[in-house]
Amino acid sequence: MGSLRDFPKYLSVASISNGIIAWLFGVTGPLLIVLQSAAKGNVTLDVTISWIFSIYVVGGILTLGMSLYYRQPIPVAFSIPGAVLVGSSLMQHTFAEVVGAYFITGVLVVILGVTGIVKRIMKILPMPIMMGMVSGVLLPFGIDIITSTVEAPLLNGAVLAVYFLLAGFPLLAKRFPPLLAALLAAFLLLYLSGMLQANGAAFALARPQVFLPSFDLGAIGELVIPLTLTVIAIQNAQGIGLLGTSGYLPPVNAMTNWSGIGSLINSFFGAHSACIAGPMTAIISGSDTGPREGRYVAAVIVGILWILFGVFAPIAAMMTQIVPAHLIKLLGGLAMVGVLAGSLQSSFSSRFKLGALFSFIITVSGVSLFHIGAPFWGLVGGTLASLVLERADFSPSAGNLQAKGVTKGGNERESDSA
Question: Does pLDDT of 23 surpass 70?
Answer without folding.
Answer: yes
